[in-house]
Amino acid sequence: DGVTEVLAHRSDSLRDKFVEIPCSEDYDSHRRFEGCTPRRCGRGVSDAIITREEAERIRRIAERGLSLGGSDGGASILDLHSGALSLGKHFVNLYRYFGDKIHDIFTEEDFALYRDVRQRIQQRIAQVFGISSSSMYLTKPTFFSRMNSTEAKTTHDEYWHPHVDKVTYGSFDYTSLLYLSDYTQDFGGGRFVFLDADSNKTVEPRAGRVSFFTSGSENLHRVEKVHWGTRFAITISFTCNPEHGIGDPVL
């Protein structure tokens, strides 16, 4: 992997750490939105947006939802917005598949906490990048992920390939990850790695830690394979284009 620097250790408790990097040209091939499209690019890590106790509550939402399905391979997703849930080698729509039983699984409080957490992350990103929070829109896919060491069965299970969010999804301008479990305590491997020309910069997951970054090629990244245990996280993504915006999930 060449030289690797740790941007955030699991044992660190970071109020705010931000590294500015030059923006790539990815944003030029998309419609620009004044006051939102990144002009300042970079990556940040904070352990001060979400508490560990809140992260545990959010993880329980993920565990309950994912217990209804789960991939045959090592990576399972649950998208509360679209209802997409990994099941075997495919996806089902959670809301159609389980119908009214969904009220036995999730509560209004779960969804209120989810909304609150999303808003706080959105506000912090806006603050750090000097944009207005109201000019950012939640976009898809925004989802829970559960990763373990089970061998991949389909390409959906291969989460470890390097990629650029803006190239992969188009609508993404700002990406965030909220970690819901602890590196070396709950799982081994599974670190988040920014692949820079000179070296790799890693973020070690810790429950309640938020990692956020501009979504262009300036932040090429990958996740290491999980070697043991289970890694939970939620990816929350934002766009500047209102046409690509989605609402918060409702029960």
TrEMBL record:
Domain Fe2OG dioxygenase residues, every copy: 140-242
Protein encoded by which gene: Ogfod3
Cofactor requirement: L-ascorbate
GO CC terms of this entry: membrane
Keyword annotations of the record: Dioxygenase, Iron, Metal-binding, Oxidoreductase
UniProt-recorded name of the protein: OGFD3 protein
GO MF term set: dioxygenase activity; iron ion binding; L-ascorbic acid binding; oxidoreductase activity, acting on paired donors, with incorporation or reduction of molecular oxygen
Provenance organism: Cephalopterus ornatus (Amazonian umbrellabird)
UniProt-listed Pfam families: 2OG-FeII_Oxy_3 (PF13640)
